[in-house]
């Protein structure tokens, strides 16, 4: 099963009938069938089914099958297909932003600092390194052979927009996925970025040396092949 594309999912709602059906399902107190959804917005049931299934394909709705109450056994008929709003978040940002990653790192750090009595900056660093290791462990594994290219594949998943020079010696990051936070909390977020990249390098087995090297238009972290 492929992972839904957030941009395509949001784009699917640009069609007025589809958006109306999504709203009808989202506002319902319980999962509803295509006939009920179609009746609410005044379209034929076959048209509603087409649009509802498209919303399922895009990850915006989920499906469950249920027999009518009081009916069971061989003669109960086929279960009814019901639609409900999907529980997963769909967020689109251009250029890519991943504030959820920063929030998880900071939440983990506060919890560790509170329970273990660790200084908060140290806890942030440890939490970010763990997040980097976890990123390196995510499937699929990078296909590139050279360490710098492998790191670039990973960081692209988090919106860093990596750029590797022609000699495969240096990597620059053309986007900071935590840009707004970095503008107001530069030292904190740049340290988080560096620790996350260090964790990813560790998870990949080394071969790259990240460092802080801010430049206009780029993330504060660069990396060099070793």
UniProtKB/TrEMBL annotation:
Transmembrane segments: none annotated. It comes from the Bacteria. Gene3D superfamilies: Winged helix-like DNA-binding domain superfamily/Winged helix DNA-binding domain (1.10.10.10). This is Helix-turn-helix domain-containing protein. It comes from Knoellia koreensis.
